[in-house]
Amino acid sequence: MPGYVGGQALRTGQLEQARQKYSEARAFWERSSNVQARRGTTLALGAVYFGQAELYLAEAHYRQALHEAQEHEDHLDMAAGHLGLARIFYAWNQLPQAEHAAHMAQEFGEQVADLEIQVQAQLFLARLEIARGENAQAKLRLIALLTRHSTLSPSDDGFLYRDVLLSQAQLQLANCELTLAQHSLDDLMRLNDQRFPTFREAVALSQVRLLLAQGEPQAALHVLTILLPDAQAEGRLRQTLEIQILLALANASQKHLPEARRLLHAVLAQASAQDDLRLFLDEGKAMANLLQSSLPSIHEKAYRAFLRRVLLAFSAVSSSSQAPLLEPLTPQEQRVLHLLASGHSNPEIARELTVSINTVKVQVQSIYRKLNAHNRVEASAIARLQGLM
């Protein structure tokens, strides 16, 4: 059956084959009017499209499956649909929507006593907490997962324990606990088997992030160049983009900026079309710095607009926990700030306020100092977060 072959291909990360077989299976179930089987293949195609970085197609499939599941009160498929949408919303950096969808997946997973859905929803919520800098809460959630479910043990045949351990390693990397992260990744390597190549790839990418944090970009490049051909050949485009982003960071760490920017440009071509902000945001400050320095070399209007959105999101994350201003803006500086945020140039601001350009420059620098910003994008984001606009 095409559906069975598609499932095998999806589990092993062969997404081109999975796409073909699931499409055949869906057409077959449509002809035979098997609504439940068709809905299952629709959910599976959502997962395939997500892995192929076609976020809008994935969203459409998850929404269709969710709508049909609601009509038939199929709580298991409702849980799977919500979890799929949570991942889409996360990629779009729509974190409140992602959180709501994950809670819905958790709720329906509990109603049908599906342990996998429940654990995956909890792991996703931990990922959200890491994205928001709520690392202590994420740690408590992961500890609770390991202690609450006795089935999550290294001796079991399942993959849930490995998923929790990988999330723990990712949290340790976010906390710069590099020795602990290395121990977690070592444990994961010992647990690995040949049935889960995409999971091995995820572990390897976490190992790459650890190498970069340890100042070993050459070792990171070696791992990435091994991973890239398989991801490309098997249609795992989103994983390919993640690998290329890490390649860009590794090259930038070695001061190979032209190659780093070439790689970024290639990723932007795909990510901007799908509004995939989290590909960049999840890599942290080093990526923000690389994007900021690369902005002058990006000439395509659509790419520049997307890149500015990413930088604005980075600014929002870095300034969300800032305390109120110790030195308030003057009324004139507030007027300048509003004009800056509206896209006015310094000469335009000078004409609008009937002052000299030098006066505007002084006021802009004063605004940057008080907001702890380095440019108008950061200043605008921080001002909005602190209620100044």
Provide an overview of this structure.
With 389 residues, this protein is mainly alpha-helical. It has four domains: 1-113, Serine Threonine Protein Phosphatase 5, Tetratricopeptide repeat, CATH 1.25.40; 115-191, no CATH class; 215-321, no CATH class; 331-385, Arc Repressor Mutant, subunit A (Orthogonal Bundle), CATH 1.10.10.10. It has 21 helices and no strands. It has helices at residues 2-11, 15-32, 35-51, 55-71, 75-91, 95-111, 115-131, 135-148, 160-174, 178-191, 197-213, 217-233, 237-253, 257-274, 278-281, 285-294, 301-319, 331-341, 346-353, 357-371, 376-385. It is globular. The model has no long low-confidence stretch (mean pLDDT 88).
Total count of domains? 4
What's the CATH C level of the largest domain? Answer: Mainly Alpha
Q: How many DSSP helices?
A: 21
Listing every helix as H and every strand as E from the N terminus to the C terminus, the arrangement reads HHHHHHHHHHHHHHHHHHHHH
Q: In what range is the share of β-strand residues?
A: under 5%
Class by alpha and beta content: mainly alpha
* Outline: globular
Mean pLDDT: 88
Report the biggest beta sheet as strand number plus sense, adding barrel if it closes: none
Roughly how many Å apart are the termini? 59 Å
Point out poorly predicted stretches.
none
Assign the CATH architecture of the largest domain: Alpha Horseshoe
Any idea of the CATH topology of the largest domain? Serine Threonine Protein Phosphatase 5, Tetratricopeptide repeat
Q: Helix amount, in percent?
A: over 70%
* Strand segment tally: 0
CATH superfamily of the largest domain: Tetratricopeptide repeat domain
Radius of gyration from CA coordinates: 23 Å
